[in-house]
Design a protein that fits this description.
Elements lengths: L5 H18 L5 H8 L3 H13 L4 E3 L2 E3 L1 H8 L1 E12 L3 E2 L6 E6 H4 L4 E8 L12 E5 L9 E5 L4 E11 L4 E5 L10 E4 L3 E10 L3
Parallel strand pairs: 3-6
Antiparallel strand pairs: 1-2, 3-5, 4-9, 6-7, 7-12, 8-9, 8-12, 9-10, 10-11
Length: about 200
């Protein structure tokens, strides 16, 4: 029986994991052969060897590395649904632009959607124009949370929930830009929490 090249074994295992990361599915034997630059028979023998060593699972012509299997369950899909005004409230318009895979290890396992920030009212909270905001939906908001708030007039905005003012019987949605909007808040008699901001994704 011919001995196996450790270099080829490593190359195939690396290819399988990289292929899954890029395509969100496991490669076929033809994909492996073409990707590593070996014949189908050689790819088959090496995949069998890696399977016997417990480094990947191989059956029905499909190779799936254990690392890839973990990755498959470690992502949540979140729709990117457009913009949210960080300034004056605006009418809500939700339209899915694309779906983004978020690793659970970084973002948690909630129900998320992603909004693009517009305006400058939240810069002190680290939120700037065109930042992507990961919003968790269907969760309660606590005082101090940054929320997507929908008011009774069906206008929405991204602000910090600053509590309830009993004197005016209104909820307070605070700006986070003391240089431009010192102490400014929006007062509403009621509002609906469409989600709580959990993470900010920035371009470098």
């Amino acid at each position: 029986m011919r001995s196996k090249s450790q270099e080829t074994l490593d190359a195939i295992l690396k290819f399988v994991n990289k292929y899954y990361q890029q395509n969100r599915r496991a490669p076929s034997i033809i994909d492996v052969a073409d990707g590593v630059g070996v014949g189908k028979t050689t790819a088959y023998r090496y995949l069998q060897e890696l399977s016997e060593r417990g480094l990947l699972e191989y059956s029905r012509g499909i190779a799936a590395a254990p690392e890839s299997a973990k990755m498959k369950t470690a992502y949540v899909s979140a729709p990117l649904v457009g913009s949210i005004q960080c300034g004056c409230p605006e009418e809500e318009q939700e339209m899915v632009e694309e779906y983004v895979s978020l690793p659970v290890s970084m973002f948690g396992n909630g129900e998320f959607y992603i909004l693009r920030a517009k305006g400058d009212s939240m810069v002190d909270a680290g939120i700037e124009e065109d930042d992507l905001l990961v919003i968790e939906r269907n969760c309660p908001a606590s005082e101090g949370d940054i929320v997507v708030a929908l008011d009774p007039d069906n206008q929405n905005t991204l602000k910090r929930f600053a509590g309830y003012d009993e004197n005016t019987e209104s909820y307070l949605l605070a700006y986070e830009n003391e240089d431009k909007y010192p102490g400014k808040v929006i007062r509403v008699k009621s509002f609906k929490v469409q989600g709580v901001a959990r993470h900010v994704i920035k371009s470098l």
